[in-house]
Design goal:
The chain is of the alpha+beta class and 104 residues long. The chain has a domain of 47 residues. It is 38% helix and 13% strand. It is built from two helices and four strands. The strands form two sheets. A two-stranded antiparallel sheet has the order 1-2. The chain has a two-stranded antiparallel ribbon with strand order 3-4. It is flat, with a radius of gyration of 25 Å.
Length: 104
Amino acid sequence: MSKNGETVSNRDNKGRFVPGTSGNPNGRKKTPKEIKEALEKLTPAALATYKRVLEDPEAPWKDKIRVAQDILDRVLGKPQQSVSLDDIDSRIRITIGGGDEYAD
């Protein structure tokens, strides 16, 4: 884009996006309607496949667990993961040109 012959940018002099701007202002493109409709028609078959795997006594346990996990993740949502910072060095590591310096 240009304004009065000058290039208008939503980035600062370091190439980062300036506050209040986005690298993807139009957002993610929506799935085309015909593709969504085709996939919706396949949903019953996909669910039937999950059911067959869960009920098949010969199916490997890893497959049964994967199917069960997929179903639970969709119905209940994926479980939250927590991260403990107790064992992490509290100093910030800065690497510039291959050398390490620490900020406390």
